[in-house]
Amino acid sequence: MCHFSAHAIAMGCLLLSTKLEETQCSLRHLIGSFHYVTVHLNQTQRSSKYEPPCRDSSELVDLRDTMVVSEMQVLKRLGFQVHVTLPYALLVNYMQVLGLTDRKLKVTVQSYDDPAEPVADGRHESMPLAQCAWSLLNDALQTPLLCIFGPHVVACTAIALAAEMCTPLVRLPLHPAPWWLLFDASEAEIKIAASHLLWRYHHSSSCTDLAELLDRRELQRYIAGRSADSDVRQHDVHIHRSR
Q1: Would you state the pLDDT for residue 3?
Q2: d(CA 39, CA 97)
Q3: How distant is the alpha carbon of residue 81 from its chain centre?
Q4: Per-residue DSSP letter, 121
Q5: In the prediction, which pLDDT does 158 show?
Q6: Kind and range of the H or E element at 128?
Q7: 58-78 and 27-42 are packed helices; what angle lies between their axes, rounded to 10 degrees?
Q8: How far apart are CA 138 and CA 88, in angstroms?
Q9: What is the pTM (predicted TM-score) of this model?
Q10: For this chain's UniProt record, which GO biological process terms are given (predicted)?
Q11: Which of 25, 66, 86, 193 has its CA 20 to 30 A from that of 230?
């Protein structure tokens, strides 16, 4: 892998990931997209117009060969094991074991018409606890959780957060042993994973035009501004303990 650049490996990873989706993406579209991004990042003037090369140009042929070879290198390192286990099935089984599938267990959440503008405090919605945990898993796909923790830890995290939000309060069993040990998870892992997921809800971006981040200089300014921002909110999760 040391003989391949980060750009080439990124191309191979993207090509491989598209093959795992229900809707296939053509190789021609991937090559064209990578060529556009590469030109956009390397050009000196943002205002210059992009001119795509001919389909049979040597430049696109080289990109195609690089993408295919890089994909094979990634597959070799993975041992051709590309099966991904999502936590949804585990969540259903775990909630059945804990007895949390009763629709009478409700979670009250605040609704948003516009994510940028929270609504008044008096507007809330109720949903079953199981539906809330399922929605948390959907939002976890927008975070690096599934790349950091196993699916069993992510499922336990969704259960812990949903139980915290339930009304009346749901106390998960801690005796004779904490409930997460039954699912091969630890309290520390659940707390860290929950912090990642909560950051997803409380993080606000100061960048109004995401296309600007394609420019390296704009991206560096954005990261520098985020690191210097002292108003970034940090949230911890509290897991119920027996009294």
Answers
A1: 77
A2: 53
A3: 21
A4: T
A5: 94
A6: strand 124-128
A7: 110
A8: 9
A9: 0.59
A10: regulation of transcription by RNA polymerase II
A11: 193
Residue corresponding to tokens 């018409």: 113
Tokens of 118: 């929270």
* CA–CA separation, 129 and 162 (whole Å): 6
Whether 197 contacts 132, CB under 8 Å: no
Residue 119 to residues 62, 71, 114, 115, Cα–Cα distance (Å): 52, 46, 8, 9
φ, ψ of residue 11 to 5 degrees: the values are -65, -45
Give the residue extent of every domain in the chain: 6-78, 88-228
The region, left, alpha or beta by phi > 0 then psi within -120 to 50, assigned to residue 218 is alpha
The structure tokens listed for 137 are 């898993």
In angstroms, the CA 114 to CA 101 distance is: 30
- Nearest residue to 55 (alpha-carbon basis) of 80, 86, 31: 31
Alpha helices in the chain (DSSP H): 6-18, 27-42, 58-78, 88-98, 129-140, 145-148, 151-165, 187-202, 216-228
Query: Which helix H or strand E contains 127, and what residues bound it?
Result: strand 124-128
Q: Give residue-wise pLDDT tens across range 168-214.
A: 788 899 988 999 999 999 999 999 998 888 887 775 555 455 444 44
DSSP SS3 for 139: helix
- The closest alpha carbon to 34, from 54, 58, 52, 56, belongs to 52
- 9-18, 99-108, 150-159 — most confident range: 150-159
pLDDT greater at residue 166 or residue 231: 166
Classify residue 130 by burial, with Cβ atoms within 10 Å: 0-12, 13-18, 19+. buried
Higher pLDDT, 102 or 119: 102
Length of the chain: 243
